[in-house]
Automatic annotation (TrEMBL):
SUPFAM superfamilies: Phospholipase C/P1 nuclease
Signal sequence, start to end: 1-21
InterPro entries: PLipase_C/P1_nuclease_dom_sf, S1/P1nuclease
Protein name: S1/P1 nuclease
């Protein structure tokens, strides 16, 4: 059986400027939506880590910090945002639950394990936990953007030129920003339109792990690749906005579920499948 191949060294400098997922509004929608699903215990645990900010506010931090000086932000942090997949069936084989150092992170799935381990550990500092929380909020958003689990050879759709209502852009950017912004909604308005309290739907979303989320994204990306659409107008928006809304809704619910698992020991029901492959015993 072929192993999962992860291309983390392919032209990182060229890719790094175009790896933003969902744009600012998309990430804020995920963060805002998640807040409605947090338990009181989790909300209290987040207070010292958020320092007065909301999940929506910190959701874009990992992208904003890529303008900061230093090797990590300029060269290494880009690899945290995506994974290139050649065989999604083997995604679950990529389990590095014992990751305890930023230097070990080679892709978004490693980033999940690192940030979760830091947040669960009683040996990590408050600054390390603040870093981990801000990055984790962002990674959940990234994992639900289809082209952050795309192909290496086109840099997750960045090299595929398309037109969106006559504007020259690329496939990655259409799914990052253009489709969301085309709704002409603030992130709070968008969130209120897609918010859900359906317990069956929430349970369905939570019965999954980050590897599953990336497999879902890869499956969507492959369908979009195979469609080979380059001129995108009203029909494209009509056909694909339901997918965008579902992915943002899933991201928000799953972010809340993940944070509840980390910070609220009583929150152990539908998320059991989520917790088992993620949490390392070494983090305790």
């Amino acid at each position: 059986m072929r192993r999962l191949t992860i291309a983390t060294t392919l032209l990182i400098a060229a890719f790094s400027n175009n790896v933003l997922a969902w744009g600012q509004n998309g990430h804020r929608i995920v963060g805002q939506l998640a807040e409605a699903h947090l338990t009181d215990t989790t909300k209290n645990a987040l207070v010292p880590l958020l320092e007065g900010d909301s999940l929506a506010e910190v959701s874009t931090w990992a992208d904003e910090m890529r303008s900061a000086p230093g090797e990590f932000w300029q060269r290494k942090s880009v690899r945290w945002h995506y994974i290139n997949v050649t065989d999604p069936k083997n995604m679950h084989e990529h389990i590095h639950a014992d990751i305890s150092s930023k230097e070990q992170v080679q892709n978004i799935l490693d980033g999940f394990y690192y940030t979760i381990n830091v947040l669960k550990s009683d040996k990590t500092s408050i600054d390390e936990k603040r870093f981990a929380l801000r990055f984790l909020v962002h990674l959940v958003g990234d994992s639900h953007q289809p082209f952050h689990a795309g192909r290496a050879d086109d840099h997750g759709g960045n090299k595929i030129k398309v037109e969106f209502f006559g504007e020259n852009t690329n496939l990655h950017s259409v799914w990052d920003t253009h489709l969301v912004e085309n709704e002409n909604l603030s992130f709070t308005e968008f969130t209120s339109f897609i918010q859900t309290k359906n317990p069956e739907l929430i349970a369905e979303y939570l019965a999954s792990s980050p590897a599953d989320w990336l497999i879902e994204s890869n499956n969507i990306a492959e369908k979009l690749y195979n469609a080979e659409q380059t001129e995108m107008k009203y029909q494209y928006v009509f056909d694909h906005m339901p997918i965008v809304k579902t992915r943002l809704q899933q991201g928000g619910v799953r972010l809340a579920g993940l944070l509840n698992l980390i910070f609220d020991a009583s929150k152990q029901h539908a998320e059991q499948k989520l917790s088992k492959p993620l949490f390392s015993e070494k983090a305790n």
